[in-house]
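Example: endopeptidase La.
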Amino acid sequence: MDSYNRKAARNSNLKLLTYMFGLIIVIYVLVFLPTPYVIYEPGSAEDIKPFVSVKNGDTEEKGTFMLTTVLRKKANVALMLGSVLDKNEQLAKENLGGRTEQEYATEQIFNMSNSQTNAIVSAYVHAKIPFDIKMDKLVIIYNNPKLATKNDFQSGDQLLSLDGVTFKEYDELINLLKTKKVGDVLKGKVLRNKKETDVTVELIALKDEKGNTRPGMGVNFGIEQKVVPRDSDKEIEFKLKDIGGPSAGLMFTLELYNQLTPGDLSKGYRIAGTGTMSPDGTVGPIGGIPHKIVAADREKADIFFAPAQNYDEAKKKYDTMKTDMKLVKVSTVDEALKYLEALPVKGK
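Written out as structure tokens, the predicted fold is:
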């Protein structure tokens, strides 16, 4: 009998261990197993006013201008399964174009900076404020993954000097490289994590569109520019952090224009939207507009500006929503301004 009980106990323990081992495997597969997928879903719709300021600007704003974002997150198996049940989530294969996560993040930060620059230019032009543009920084976005680069650069480095030369314009760097040959080793300095760091660059052979060979570094640079108004009372400062990409250009422009000119362009409405901004005021297409519309509606937006090239995609999502928010198609900032100027004050 004792022998039978011991055998039963061993069988019971074996079953328990098998169950526990199986449970661990299931948890690992569902939660920890890496996948090549990401999930896109509605992010935030945030008031822009706290992020920008115009020196001696008109701060009257009874409504609000909002930028909208898309949340991108790595997908484990559990999240992949859950996304099937959520109509606002989109499962997609991750594609960084050969870049690392850090390089992708650096590029998105640069795109946001470039978006701010274009918004400032467009707002100054429409507010008829004279300004000048100068280069502020040369930032390394990433080494071209298709080239055998030979340098110490890291994504996010700010180039301070190369071969003892500092640069006020990007063309000055190009002109320096024209005086060198393939295989030359140059010493340089970068600002990395707020610390000046020495780097070495060996020039490699690059080919232009005509097939001609020239010396170069094989680096994708970001040129950050500074827009300086000739009237110092109209200086603009951005305080935005932790948001990347170029898609807030239109909404930045509207907020800046509102502060640069007298009166309240918002007229008490909650105004959201998206779209890149060119210096000439053209509103360009963006990604993820169905998610941005949902984010705006969650924050009770009255109006959503959609780029003309994204409008059909936006309307398809909009038609599935129960919302009082108005969807407005725009191709230029002038069209958005004309629409807002024609609105009555909210509540009247």
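The mean pLDDT is 89.
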